Amino acid sequence: MTRAVIYARFSTELQSEKSTEDQIALCRAYAARIGLDVIGSYEDKARSGASIFGRDGLMRLMDAARDRAFEVVIVEALDRLSRDMEDLAGIHKRLSFLGVEIHAVHDGTADAILVGLRGLVGQLQREDGAKKVRRGMAGVIREGRHAGGRAYGYCPVPGRRGELEIVEEEAEIVRRIFAAYAAGRPPREIAGELNRDRIAPPRGTRWNASTINGNARRGNGLIFNELYAGRIVWNKVRMVKNPDTGKRISRPNPRDQWQEIAAPHLRIVDEGTWKCAQALKAEKARLSTNVKRRPAHLLSGLLRCGCCGSGMSVHDRDKTGKTRIRCSAVRENGSCSNRRILYLTDVEEAVLKGMTEELKDTRLIETYVRAYNEERKRLAATAISRRTRIERRRDRLEAERQRAIDMLIKGVLREEEGRARLDELRGQVLEAERELSQVGETPQIIALHPATLDSYIATVDRLAAVLTEHAAAEDDRGSLVSTFRALVHGVTVHPKAPREGFQVEVKGKLAALIGGAAFPQAKYSGGRVVAEERLEPPRGGRCV
Hints:
Elements: E1 2-9, H1 18-34, E2 36-44, H2 56-66, E3 72-75, H3 85-97, E4 101-104, E5 108-109, H4 112-142, E6 154-156, E7 164-166, H5 168-182, H6 187-196, H7 209-213, E8 231-234, E9 237-241, E10 248-252, E11 259-262, H8 271-292, E12 303-305, E13 312-317, E14 323-327, H9 328-332, E15 342-343, H10 344-359, H11 363-410, H12 415-439, H13 450-465, H14 467-472, H15 479-485, E16 488-495, E17 502-509, H16 510-513, E18 523-525, E19 529-531
Parallel strand pairs: 1-2, 1-3, 3-4, 12-16
Antiparallel strand pairs: 4-5, 6-7, 8-11, 9-10, 13-14, 14-15, 16-17, 17-18, 17-19
Helix pairs in contact: 3-4, 5-8, 11-12
């Protein structure tokens, strides 16, 4: 008897677990009626038919089909396989190539026409269902109920869907945040204070500035949540599915598509504080362009904290106008233990001196070229061995295919047997050709040309030549920035004990150092250079 498997699926957790059992029972009855031998079943529970991603049962079925484990797939209806036209057509195409038929209980054997029609109908039904859901949610908003998810400061009223009530403990935190923000305190400082007070955030384990700041275009974040001002707003974003990953992502809707209704019983923040916070937010948004135009420091975007790996940013300037930096995580949410505040000029001096001394040693380049070539040789040997093995298998299959043709011509094989064997061998030859195309070219070995070392030395000399110029410059603009950034990938600052200085670890772009693209992903790790901090007292008379 012809071997067959059954595939069953239902879409959401709201459906009964027995849904797949009912589908499988129906498919078994169909198989018995037309004389198919069911050897197994595959199922996906609570998985949408809008995408093939995340459907383990379907993936196992396709793997078994490639292993020639069966000849027929039985489903209750074609929309169990997919409710997307492209995906359903792709499944049908691949199974047909493997010699597997699709049988639907209510439609019989699926051909290209039936797959096209059912794929179109399934996708239209899915999209129509999504529109009806949105229409229902819009009706919920018109009735003054909440159609969104969990909102900090509120909880659902038991037994009354869409209705919220204020959680007073959380509401006090919301008022505290708005009062601090309206008073001019930055979100990072507010978040750090909440973390120090061990106040649970809306999500995750720690408060962040982004939790408070949000995004004006999307209308999210505490400061933009109009529910706190007694207004329910819906349809700020729409969800779309990425066809390449199957993941749903949100995209902001235009403001004129937002739906809003008054809900004074849900107000937490008074109107005066709300308007003050929104005015401050609007003012900061206007200033953002000017901030972006400020000239960057030499190490802007390159500094990392040695304790937590976060970036380091400007903290303030002392009485003499010197810039001081600290770990961004400390300012953002207080999660890093590195509380040290360092002078930016001290860090720059340590980095520049350390790089100049370290990079003068050309043996570094020779070491990296040697390691690179050893890895290239290993990869080349592996590639050659794999290519030879696949070519031998392809030649053997091609010879076997030619013998089958000769036996078919001489009448040794019956026509049906011969054609089946030739189709099988042709598929295996094509698979071998595909594997060969994936092996790629043999990696090339590079040589260290004298001109490469000359380019390297010239780059380091240019760096040394502008060090004096940098020391007297009023800002970091000039040739040093471009020269330095051509060499440096990142700088990690490791704090030592108080009054014992710090260490910097420089990672360079080796491809730039040797003047070419031979090492596009390589990184150079320089030695750690100790630099003593200047212990002049900052503002407030406290040493850092």
